[in-house]
Amino acid sequence: MSKIPVPHQKLIEKYGPHKAYTPKGGFEGSSEPDKLVKTHCCFCGMQCGIQLKVKDNKIAGFEPWMEFPFNEGRLCPKGVQRYLQNNHPDRILSPLKRVEGKGFEPTSWEKAMTRTVHEIQRIQKEYGNDAFAMLSGVSLTNEKSYMVGKFARVALKTANLDYNGRLCMVSAGAGNKKAFGLDRISNNWSDLKHAEVIIIAGTNISETFPTLTHYIWEARDHGAKLIVVDPRVTPIARTADLHLPVRPGRDSALFGAMLKILVDNDWLDHEFIDNYTSGFQETIDAVKDYDLDWAEETTGIPKEKIQQAASWWGKAKTSFLLHARGIEHHSKGVENVLSCINLVLATGRIGKPYCGYGTITGQGNGQGGREHGHKCDQLPGNRDITNPEHRKYISEVWGIDEKDMPGKGLTAYELIEAIHRGEVKGLISICFNPLVSLPNNNFVREALEKLEYYVCIDFFLNETARHADIIFPGSLHEEEEGTVTTAEGRVVKINQAITPPGEARKDSDILIELAQRLGAGDKFNYKNSEAIFNELRVASKGGTADYFGITYEKIEKNMGVFWPCPSEDHPGTPRLWEDRKFKTPDGKAHFNPVSYREPSEVVDKEFPVVLTTGRVVSQYLSGTQTRRIGKLVDQYPEPLLEIHPKLAYQYGIQERELVKVKTRRGEGEFPAQIVETIREDTVFIPYHWGGKQSANQLTIGTLDPVSKIPEFKVCACQLIPSGKKAPDIKLSKAYQSL
Ligand SMILES: Nc1nc2c(c(=O)[nH]1)N[C@H]1C(S)=C(S)[C@@H](COP(=O)(O)OP(=O)(O)OC[C@H]3O[C@@H](n4cnc5c(=O)[nH]c(N)nc54)[C@H](O)[C@@H]3O)O[C@H]1N2
Ligand SMILES: Nc1nc2c(c(=O)[nH]1)N[C@H]1C(S)=C(S)[C@@H](COP(=O)(O)OP(=O)(O)OC[C@H]3O[C@@H](n4cnc5c(=O)[nH]c(N)nc54)[C@H](O)[C@@H]3O)O[C@H]1N2
Ligand code: SF4
Ligand SMILES: [Mo]
What we know:
The structure is a single chain. By secondary structure, the protein is of the alpha/beta class. The protein has four domains: 6-85, Single Sheet (N-terminal domain of TfIIb), CATH 2.20.25.90; 109-168 and 365-478 and 503-543, Rossmann fold (3-Layer(aba) Sandwich), CATH 3.40.50.740; 170-359, Dimethylsulfoxide Reductase, domain 2 (3-Layer(aba) Sandwich), CATH 3.40.228.10; 609-736, Barwin-like endoglucanases (Beta Barrel), CATH 2.40.40.20. 30% of the residues lie in helices and 18% in strands. It has 24 helices and 28 strands. α4 runs parallel beside α20 (507-520) and α4 crosses α21. The longest helix has 19 residues, at 109-127. It starts with 7 loop residues before the first helix and ends in a 13-residue tail after the last strand. Bound molecules: ligand MGD (2 copies), iron/sulfur cluster and molybdenum atom. Residues 41, 43-44, 46-48, 75-76, 78-79, 209-211 line the site of iron/sulfur cluster.
């Protein structure tokens, strides 16, 4: 695979240099922006409000948006630097085609479109419709997510559509649907502030959701007890009242043992259990043997700590339990989630003031993007593609015959496996970088090389796109209007600040033109983003994720509306379940029995150390965006191997020594960072880099049987010290080219 960079200089000559912002800071010429645009950060699920400064159709900086109720002006390092993407020299400014041996060359929209449509039709004719697949992502707005779902089913007519939330929120989604029949956090963030006990399980919120930390601090100011469950002493764990240093992959043993303690001490809400839940007896039967000695041995957490956590949780009057990928990225991610929910239901503390439960959604539109139909088994409104009534309703909204609606397709990693087996031959991707973000990525690379045709829509040339035949230059967050749904279920407005540069186009315009050329133009007749949203409202009507009563005007007026919102006069629902009417078929909240089982790969003599992976504050996901911004790179320039001093001593590893980390899938070399803030039997590597620096060369492709999420958080590795020190790091330029 050639890695010749895109010839940007020519395009910059053609379209003019990026003038508005100088990397040293400030404006060239007049210092007054043309306008300030209220919108939201393009990165994580907090969706902090921000005002973008626009000058000469470029984003030239930002101002805090003090009135936006969630973050009141506060931002994290990524939010502060995000505006630097828009003037970036790596920005793709025209369609590109790959020329074997030469890298990428600009091409015209006409040629790129014609070739793409020709290849889609050729592959589908030769191998069947499902042989052309689509992968999507939830950095996309609700409008684009909705349209991708419709595009794949109505224009491409393929069953094989899935999205990057498959690597992210699906374990939580599946668990929540089983227990509550609906997939959203129960309460909005302000209920956190007065909770008496807060459990944070498997989330490094100070680095991954920094602006949410403020809510935890406020709760602590009000006397809350904070319990953090993490194999690392993360920044939030350092301020916790109790840190439970769980051995990776053992959370359901911990929560099961805590449930047993609740039962033994009768710290239960019988009124709630009897009237509003089902499945309690089977669930407590499943943990009856989980005594403290077993729990200590299995989880690696001292039993006094487990007892203390259960007693604080059991006796509290108000509480909040939050979890994220630390417990969800497992081959038993759904079981981990259910074991948390069992603790919440046993104490009946949900859907009341200061009593809540939920997953912290990761990506910018991780919430809305998992509701409106770009999952392989889903239709808008969180409907089920295998349910005849749901199929009928959405077919009517889309104006198609129900029998033309494809069925359930493959999930993201299964799709890669099908490509590898030669069953899927063509791929279109938007907003997804699987070569960095999927596990066991040497296998992913082999699969990509087998594709007969691959077309990618992105604004930067990401690692996966380097395997594409054609790249369509799409739009940044600030270049198209739409809505996103924040991690607390608040639908907010993304306002367009500038138009896409050069020949880049809005993502939705690219999909609309493709749909037209594929002969489905009449189904994609949208005047603007609001028209797409209005169709989404109807499509979601009556579904569990009901947006029907939400309008652009209402969002602007109220700075967001919480779904479900079934009618225009409905105020929205910041707190779910106050009426105790759950969305399961019997209207009850369901306990689910969980029996502990081991991770798919455990340590042995050959691979004796546990490897876990995750994030750092200044980098975002596969790094395509944040590795291009110098100040964020300087904050954390390269992936480091976090290792405890005792383990380092055992191997004779020195600070910054290059250590080879080897698993059954692959190997890579990482500089050691010796820290006391990690378990002695575990090492941690952040995953935001590609190629030889990629943590996902090492991770395992085992999937949860229900959610199909990969087991990113635990596998077994070997450590081989090199005796060489890692080279010193040089400070970056403001714009880093990749
Ligand atoms: N800076 C930054 N912020 C982000 C992102 C980013 O890339 N960078 N991405 C966004 C997205 S999409 C997501 S999904 C979220 C993710 O947000 P988080 O889930 O908070 O992030 P991670 O770093 O993946 O994992 C969290 C913690 O899980 C711990 N952990 C590992 N194994 C286990 C285990 O077996 N049990 C338990 N209890 N804990 C374990 C790790 O030590 C880590 O501290 O962050 C969002 N915010
Ligand atoms: N080992 C390990 N692997 C992991 C994880 C882990 O904890 N450990 N975490 C997993 C998780 S939780 C997640 S969410 C995934 C994320 O993995 P990915 O979704 O692959 O990561 P992104 O970096 O978001 O890739 C998205 C691409 O979309 C582009 N993009 C962003 N916004 C837009 C847009 O509006 N329009 C268009 N056209 N393109 C856009 C970006 O430029 C980027 O190239 O990674 C997963 N992989
Ligand atoms: S916390 Fe999330 S949404 Fe807020 S500024 Fe940081 S990355 Fe952006
Ligand atoms: Mo994520």
